[in-house]
Every structure is written in C-alpha cells, then in structure tokens.
Amino acid sequence: MTEAARHANPVERPDFARGLSNLADARAGATVVAVSDEFFAPGERMLAAAPPVFYPERFDDHGKWMDGWETRRRRGPGHDWAVVRLAMPGVIEAIELDTSFFTGNFPPAASVEACRVESGDPDAATVWQEIVPVVSLRGDDHRFCRVEAGEVFTHLRLNLYPDGGIARLRVHGRGRPRLAAAGGDVPDLAALGHGGRVVAVSDAHYGDPNAILAPGRGVNMGDGWETRRRREPGNDWGIIALGCPGRIERVVVDTAHFKGNFPARVSLQAARPENATDESLVPQSMFWETLLPEMPLQADAIHEFQTEQLVDVGVVSHVRCNLIPDGGISRLRLHGWPEGSG
C-alpha cells in the first residue's frame, strides 16, 4: 500500500519578507552545526528547500516521522536550541518559523539570536545578539518576524521554549558572499551560495525555479525548473538576480534528466536596472539587451557558451533566461567577475 503525503499549503509572505534570499537554504550550503537534542527528527531537516510534507502512517524507531526538527519532551529546566551556519554571510530582514503539521508537539514560544564569526563556528566565547525576542507560536502555522539589526551575520541560534518541533526555518535576507574563484575558475554569480535568486518566472508548474541555481547537477527531473506545455504563442522565461553585479564571461545550461521535455532553444537577456522592484522587472526585462542569442539545446546534456558566443553588455545585475518555447532545465550557471574585482 502506497503512502499518501499531505503537503503544506502555500503561504504568502508579508512585504518585509519578499524579494530576499533564504540564507538558511541547505542547497546553498546552510547547515546545523550544533543542537541540544534531535531525538525525534534531525535539525538539518528544517533547512530543506522543499515545503514540508506529512505522512499519516509513517513511523520510525523513535516514533512518528516528522518533516522538520523535533526534540524529545523536556523533563527538566532549560530549553532546546539549534545553531545554524548560514549559507553565506548576510543582512537578515525576516525570520520565518514554520510549524506545519506540528500540532500537539510545537514549541509554545521561540527566539532567535545571531552572531558573526570570521572563521569557523561559534564557541563558548562567542557573543550572541538577540534579533527576534521571544515570540509565541501556534501549531501548524507560519510566524514571520521582522529583523532590524542591519548587521552582517554568519550564524543563528534558534531557541525553543521549552522543546518541540519546527518544520522549516527560513532566514530571509540579503547575502554578502565572499566571492572567490574555486580552483582558478571564474565564480558563478548566480549561485544560491553566492546570493543569487530567481525573481520571477512565467510558469513553474513543475519543480522549484531556484533549484537551477543550486550546486551540483540535478539528481532527477524534479530537481530543476520545468514549465507546463505551452499552448499559446510566445515562450517561457525566468528572471535571475545575481548575488552581486558583474560581467558575465561564461554560461552553462544543463538539461540533466530532461529528455522529452527540454527547451528547443535558450537565449539570455541582461541589464543593470536601477531602483527597480521585483514586480517592475518583469515588463522591463522584455527590452533588456541580448547576452546570449538563441542557441539550440539537447536532451540531458551540459551546454557551455564561452565569451566569443556572448554579447558584451557590460556589468549586469539581472539576467532573463528564455526557454523557447517551453520545457525544463536542471541548472543555469552565470560565471563572471564581480564588479570591482579587477
């Protein structure tokens, strides 16, 4: 008998949490480095990119399987906590505490502290700063907390009072990545770990568009961005905000696992719009300069486009990727040097 999963309902973010990167995205490198307890469910699970799910009939050796971080029932003083190393240093503007499917086992309250460590992880001498004072939580709910510290942090400590479970921790902010060439290669300015993010797409019927900016190759067809079958004129598109402005020198489009549904062609446009909102970028992007003219794609293949195939459009901060006419790609790499790097 096949298990039937219940999926968390989508939640609209408040204005103060929109247009930001998730600095606690495990795909980008965020990880739990210390935890007081994770008897029922590991801390790493709350950093997963996918929305939480619930399997009514699933149990493991420790009890009910939950999609998140869950501690045992505390029988003494104190409270539970988890220390998270962010995917990159950044300025945090909002914390999202998601208790989806945690109903009789959610924490009544939580708080968040942050610190900046130049090398390694926090230790006993680390000074923590409270960025979210103690707030009440409810079961199977989302709590968005505005953060106004304005400083660059590298780690968070999530405190649960006194114990319980969190399905997802999202840390909405603006990355301040330490961009460097790895092994002499030009850095990928669009990588999640460098602060890149997908601003908008024409359609995301299948998959998570931000997956195209994740490290490594896709593990299956669900690990990418795929649109529905287009039944009208035009083509599908996605707008990517780079982690920092730069001059793009090499492009990689990977259609791993997309065989009968890859785009016939791809093209890129780019610009450096000033004082633009995510919403205003959509109509503007139609008129951006061409970075990569239309190029044919193949199924389940890595396509590399070098400097001689790209148009020199100067320093840009945003790229529009056109899938012609529709279909799916697994990864998009936009390699280039950050502005001011020489």
From TrEMBL:
Its EC number is 3.5.3.4. It is an enzyme of class 3 (hydrolase). Residues 29-174, 195-336 form the Allantoicase domain. It catalyses: allantoate + H2O = (S)-ureidoglycolate + urea. Keywords: Hydrolase, Purine metabolism. GO terms for molecular function: allantoicase activity. Pathway: Nitrogen metabolism; (S)-allantoin degradation; (S)-ureidoglycolate from allantoate (aminidohydrolase route): step 1/1. Gene3D superfamilies: Galactose-binding domain-like. GO terms for biological process: allantoin catabolic process; purine nucleobase metabolic process. It comes from the Bacteria. SUPFAM superfamilies: Galactose-binding domain-like (SSF49785). Belongs to the allantoicase family. HAMAP family: Allantoicase. NCBIfam families: allantoicase. This is Probable allantoicase. It comes from Sediminicurvatus halobius. The gene is alc.
